[in-house]
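Before relying on records like the one below, remember that each one covers exactly one chain. Contacts with other chains, cofactors or solvent are not represented anywhere in the record.
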Amino acid sequence: MSTSSRLRWIRLFFAVSPLPFSIVELGANPLETPVLEMARQIKDRIVHVEGNHVVVKSPDSLKNVAGKAWYVVNTSRWKDVPAFVRASGLMADYVPGKFALMQLDDAAVEQLSAELHAAGMACGVLTRLGESTVSMERVVTPTPVKPVDTEIVAVTAMASAIDSNRIKATIDEMSQIATRYYQTPTGVSVPDWLVGKYRALAGSRSDIEISKYDHTTVNSRQASVVVRVLGTSRPDEILILGSHIDSVNWSDGTRERSPGVDDNASGTATNLEIFRVLVANGAKFDRTVEIHGYAAEEIGLVGSLHMANDYKIAKKNVIAMVQQDMNLYKEPGTPDKIWFVQENTDDGFNNMLGRLVDKYAGIAWGKGSLTAGSSDHASWRRRGYAASFPFEHPQDHNPHIHTSDDTTVNANAFSQAAAFGKLGLAYLAHFGGLN
């Protein structure tokens, strides 16, 4: 189909479509296609990108329906949409072997997530849609303040102080919480617990701010946590190191035991340990460093989507974002390794972080595809920010997540988690400009 024909089809589609969201195919190179330049009325309404397909909101203002929301549902395991997915709500459209566009009520979201888990899908298989649009500009690979090919002696010393036993202690404590599911009382209290941990480590540092980020406007009583270390010379430039703080048991029920050791006490504990080492060494940075603990990731990246949208609206200058989500599992007998997920990440950024793995973590690294899941990095990438997602093996990750068996019995590669900690510390030091 020619560009002009596609544009005429798109205009006709929106003229007759009664739905608030629709799928449009842009062609082989969606970031370069003339459609984006010639049809600004479409470009400015794109709310989700999947390969060469985009989800576009209608010209009319979105009609919110109480208790319902629109979602992109990952169906990459199937050529057609399975019957259990079709039965979960109103399906507006789908792309075979990729995703479906659906309106779901709150109960259906829980049920569908559980069924997708049972079918072998991973985290982040649902993405909740809203009014916020996706940046279709090319992501700029971030530039480190201090080149990644140059060793920073202070970072080598700090990396050696990353303590796997401390990471384990935090994971053990988090896993004792019955569940961190975002709608439960224990899930709602997790941010306060984590804020307390960070404040105890921060001490009297006046350049460190620790707060909660409210998400009640997007139907989450669970807040996110934001730890901010103000930059000394470039405070308006922001680096983000994230993890999600919620857990879920899709097998037995969302109110049942959900230790979430690997998913994602591991990433949250790793980031806390990075912060401990930085504060213990009096570390300061040229750029502002933010450590985020995201709410409600398991139910559609809710917390990170809300925050990324707010940051974009506020025109905050986010230089880069790295997500820590699942680093504690590996097949028995295999060596520690860091994998960089290729979906919704910047390849040049991944390569630079890989060189930091070589320099400071001393383990192997690689790149791989995680098509049956995602994490909070995708929220930042869709708003036009460079992102990276270091992960355990993307094709052989922990099979016990989202169950009561996500425990240290089944995931206990603590030296591997420590290597992720060394990477995260080096990322902040080189890209943030360690003073």
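Confidence is low (pLDDT under 50) at residues 1-16.
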